[in-house]
Amino acid sequence: MQVYSGKSVFGGVAIGKIQVYAREDDGRQVKRIRVEDAEAEVIRCREATKEAMAQLGRLYEKALQEVGEANAAIFEIHQMMLEDGDYQESIENIIRTQSVNAEYAVAQTADNFSQMFASMEDDYMRGRAADVKDISGRLLTILQGGEKTGIHTQEPVIIVADDLAPSETVQLDKDKVLSFVTIHGSSNSHTAILARTMGIPSLIGTALPPDETLDGKLGIVDGTNGLFYVDPDEETYARLQQAQREEAEKRQLLQTLKGRENITLDGQKIMLYANIGNSKDLAVVLQNDAGGIGLFRSEFIYLESDHYPTEEEQFRVYKPVAETMGQKRVIIRTLDIGADKQCDYFEMAKEENPALGCRAIRICLTRPEIFKTQLRALFRASAYGKLAIMYPMITSVGEVRRIREIVEEVKRELDSQGIQYGNPEQGIMIETPAAAIISDQLAGEVDFFSIGTNDLTQYLLAIDRQNTALDEFYDPHHPAVLRMISLVVENAHKAGIWAGICGELGADTELTREFLAMGVDELSVSPGKILPIRKIVLETDVAEYKKNRPGI
Ligand code: PEP
Ligand code: MG
């Protein structure tokens, strides 16, 4: 038996025969050939691009059916990358200036661009290196007269590959795939995201032999513990088979919880909402039966743009979300740029301590024109559903009052222009120790609190949440964090408002019962966590739990 460890992108156990993914273009040698007629090569390349665009359009439709809009979006991104001016210009430039064949120019451009992406600091951008290779591989296959193939297998297999491009993943016949195990890949890559949505136990970054030695052998992927067994011994086989049975039963059970109210055995209710970063995540929100959206991180609209998103651009994002969710609450958090989320066009001064610097509401209050644009879009969208607005990084009552003044200005402007808007609830994030400590005062100023435990933990424990070297010290179960949550909920209730948690800790099922005991009104978590938490809620007797409740 050989055991390899990797990074899990989706839990669960898969047992089956291993198939090493051999792609048609593996080891493809692209020759540099001088051509007489460079313009003819350029035209050939443009034709190939057209065909690639058409293929991607078909893949988008297929993915839309199988894995929903959010995950199909990668093919739209590929279309955009393929048509990107810089990418096309680079290819044509190489053909013309060096009088070479289109294949060589595409391969060269793929190398240059993917190296450029791979060297970027941002995880998301690094993930795009694989996408450039993918679109270029597609172009090359077309130029070389082939059809980009999927995996052909008669029986369900564990796919082992150096890396899998998103288009390769989606083209697979899902009934035939038990799991993916790859040597490379990042958990931010679209392939990892697809694997999660498809619910296939998968590992990335697995130190496998880079050849075909594993092909045809029996494998077990333990996605929960990040282990891959090849030729497992009897004991391992039996143990993981049992784990697989238990997983399947659990999943089955969770499905039966759809449509159920989130209510404890002794009648306490809690709202279970979803965190999203993109309107494209709506399908998975609905699939997982979320009662609403508790945190829409609107800064992604800014991060994905190369200019300040206009009122109209933002309205076009917020309105369909409000409409789709209907009477379910949609809490949109205003811009939380700064610290780890930087946008070049904001031209922010370099700071010694960005996490303690000009971020989130501090930017909005010092540059109100940016804030007002977003508020106008949000208020307009609030006419189309149950929209709520949430302000991040609050530390004082004065900030909330200043926000209220700006909001009133925006409403006056909309009134004078005869533009329709609703009456959105307005709440704040409690993610600084200052806000938690004065939550009794803040509660009188707003409609709700949502506790951002990611930042609250970092500021309370004085530990940079981005610094993985400090992981062992970053303890969100620290009594200081739990006591703060309890205090905030208590102060919210005294003032007659509700309080939820939208930081990662809200999804920590070890604490669900404790949160219920504290009286937390809402947990906003990643969509896949809603049903597991609902299960705990349904099985909890809060009064009973309180009898033996551990002290904090
Ligand atoms: C938080 O700080 O807990 C939070 C939800 O916001 P973000 O992670 O986006 O800073
Ligand atoms: Mg935060």
* SS-based class: alpha/beta
Low-pLDDT segments: none
Task: Count all strands and give the number.
Answer: 16
Q: Strand order of the main beta sheet, please? A: 1-8-7-3-4-5-6-2
Q: How much strand content do the residues show?
A: 5-15%
> What is the helix content?
40-55%
C-alpha termini separation: 45 Å
Q: Name the average pLDDT.
A: 90
Number of helices: 20
Described by the principal axes of the CA atoms, the overall outline is globular
| Cofactors and ligands | phosphoenolpyruvate, magnesium ion
Radius of gyration: 26 Å
Please describe the biggest sheet, giving its number of strands, its sense, and whether it closes into a barrel.
8 strands, mixed
Any overview of this molecule?
The protein is an alpha/beta fold and 552 residues long. 47% of the residues lie in helices and 14% in strands. The chain has 20 helices and 16 strands. The strands form 2 sheets. The chain has an 8-stranded mixed β-sheet. Helix 13 links the parallel strand 12 and strand 13 (425-430). The mean pLDDT is 90. Phosphoenolpyruvate binds at residues 295, 297, 336, 431, 452-455, 502-503.
Please give a quick description of this structure.
Helices cover 47% and strands 14% of the residues.
Which features does this protein show?
single chain; binds phosphoenolpyruvate; eight-stranded parallel barrel; 20 helices; eight-stranded mixed β-sheet; binds magnesium ion; 552 residues; 47% helix; alpha/beta; globular
